[in-house]
Amino acid sequence: MTPLYFEDLAPGQVHRSGELAVTAEAIKRFAAEYDPQPFHLDEARAAASFFGGLAASGWHTAALTMRLLVESGLPLAGGIIGAGMDELRWPRPLRPGDTIRLESEVLELRPSRSRPMQGLAKVRTTTLNQDGAPVQVLVANLVVMRREPGGA
Amino acid sequence: MTPLYFEDLAPGQVHRSGELAVTAEAIKRFAAEYDPQPFHLDEARAAASFFGGLAASGWHTAALTMRLLVESGLPLAGGIIGAGMDELRWPRPLRPGDTIRLESEVLELRPSRSRPMQGLAKVRTTTLNQDGAPVQVLVANLVVMRREPGGA
């Protein structure tokens, strides 16, 4: 992938990622280490829970989204560096057997006031399942390197 | 820990967690699977990067925060179920050798309009390092079970 600099981005651009399949084993393994709650760990207890069946931890969905962003979703020259999030929500659970992919839309761009080689990009990354339904919406403010120095 | 129901929460309450130590090995292992960027994977390349040294992925900080919330930080009766986040930022990196702990302040409570056995709690969870400096600030809207049915 050609690395993208601040100058290559424009509001309205949409960048798409490759796909990633999610297994029950992966959901349980993440949960055992980072979010050990019954609805992420055990099918029977999950069926009786709020989620009505095994569901990935939202933080697992976020972590897998990051992997897709890094590997194929948004090839920023300096890497994917989040300065902060404006929004993070999980409209529906990520389930075993789902295959996810990303659509990242550039919403806003602004040069850095203090760092001439950097800019900030506000990007909405939607994580979609195989039915095209969103399992996560993330609006992130990313630090993006410039090709040439710029000013505010 | 005594499980907390919606009726047990009040704005201004602060709940504290136990501690968790973070190693370079753990930082690299998370990054290899979920955020494979040089500044999370390799000391030398991290030293030359934006971060000036090995730093945990922000999503690793979030995942470890979740583990502390589940294990000791906020013993909600139905578990920790996030309906969405109003804020998520990482004021400084989480570094190898850091020990983290949480302070979770209840900001707002509101009964569910449609589900008499549930309420919503807005909680600000600050993840502090061993110097008491924040490495993450998360404001989450949590689904909380009621002991007795209530109405909006």
UniProtKB/TrEMBL annotation, chains A, B:
Domain MaoC-like, residue spans: 15-120
Protein name stated in the entry: Bifunctional protein PaaZ
A Pfam family of this chain: MaoC_dehydratas
Lineage: Bacteria, Pseudomonadati, Pseudomonadota, Alphaproteobacteria, Hyphomicrobiales
Organism: Methylobacterium isbiliense
CDD domains: YdeM (cd03454)
